[in-house]
Design goal:
With about 325 residues, the chain is of the alpha/beta class. The protein has a single domain, classed as TIM Barrel (Alpha-Beta Barrel). It has 14 helices and 8 strands.
Length: about 325
């Protein structure tokens, strides 16, 4: 036992990010950064505590009913930014705000949406240096991030399940990637029949570890932020990763655990050299296609975000 919780020990070697849109939870755990997505915004927007915020956003778009797709789209953008604005009042670092998942395969539309979100933040007096634009790690999303980074708009490439996605993201100069852990474990449990994995054998943990080591060996500046955790073992196995985005439930569990935390990832100890040759779009798509887990989880993730985006849009129409 130590006199520090595992959460406090983790914060000494890894930037801890809150994976929630709940302001109260963010304030409680004092993370550096916070991430949001359509699923988290849907959950947060429907909480009674934030009803006034939602109504204020709607009033900024229309005095009556949200009657057109354009009004709903405007309302969704403003709602995402308003939540981001409130979160930034609580944290010292950055908030990730996600581009509409419907645009996951449209580079130009993703770029336009990102510029729109940044413009809304700037109208609220928030500099773009405090915002990460979040997009799915499709080929089109990676290309959008490449252009936005050249404009000084930093990006968070999410729904990242494969090494080829990670390599392409770093090559494009993305500011940050969010490689998923728990969803990879979910897939392996369903498709291998093996339900019990030792923490070090967790396929999601192994995926992020390989990506982290490759980035450090290759001198990439792209930040690795592990995401989508199912248990605290996955988190502690990645202690030392650049950043980890963690749900309030798991932040709480780490905060109540006073065991010793051992650093597992270290830029000065990345193991055997990882060799990988960057390729073009054809190679990217082929490698992704060859990885059944990554292909299925990427598609499932985009569908899930689209579904929750649609639910939130419907709910906004219904309450006006």
């Amino acid at each position: 036992m130590t006199n520090k919780s595992k959460l406090d020990q983790l914060k000494e070697i890894t930037t801890v990010v809150a994976d929630t849109g709940d302001f109260d939870a963010i304030a409680q755990y004092e993370p550096e950064d916070a991430t949001t997505n359509p699923s988290l915004l849907l959950k947060a927007a429907q909480m009674p505590a934030y009803r006034g915020l939602v109504e204020d956003v709607i009033k900024s778009v229309t005095n009556g009913k949200l009657s057109s797709d354009e009004q709903v789209d405007d309302c969704m953008d403003r709602l995402a930014v308003r939540f981001g604005e409130k979160i930034l009042q609580t944290i010292p670092g950055r908030v990730s705000t996600e581009v509409d998942a419907h645009l996951s395969f449209d580079t130009e539309a993703s770029i336009a949406k990102a510029r729109r979100l940044i413009n809304l933040y700037e109208q609220a007096g928030i500099d773009k240096s405090r915002v990460l634009i979040k997009m799915a790690s499709t080929w089109e999303g990676i290309r959008a991030a490449e252009q936005l980074e050249k404009e000084g708009i930093n990006c968070n490439l999410t729904l990242l399940f494969s090494f080829s996605q990670a390599a392409a993201a770093a090559d494009a100069g993305a500011f940050l990637i969010s490689p998923f852990v728990g969803r990879i474990l979910d897939w392996y449990k369903v498709n291998t029949g093996l339900n019990d994995y030792a923490p070090e054998d967790d396929p999601g943990v192994q995926s992020v570890t390989r990506i982290y080591n490759y980035y450090k060996q290759s001198g990439y500046n792209t930040i690795v932020m592990g995401a989508s955790f199912r248990n605290t073992d996955e988190i502690t196995e990645l202690a030392g990763c650049d950043r980890l985005t963690i749900s309030p439930q798991l932040l709480s569990a780490l905060g109540e655990d006073y065991g010793t935390l051992t650093r597992k990832l270290d830029p000065s100890n990345t193991g055997k050299r990882i060799h990988y040759t960057q390729g073009d779009e054809n190679k990217f798509r082929f490698e992704l296609n060859e990885d059944a887990m990554a292909t299925e989880k990427l598609a499932e993730g985009i569908r899930g975000f689209v579904k929750d985006q649609n639910k939130l849009e419907t709910w906004l129409r219904d309450i006006t």
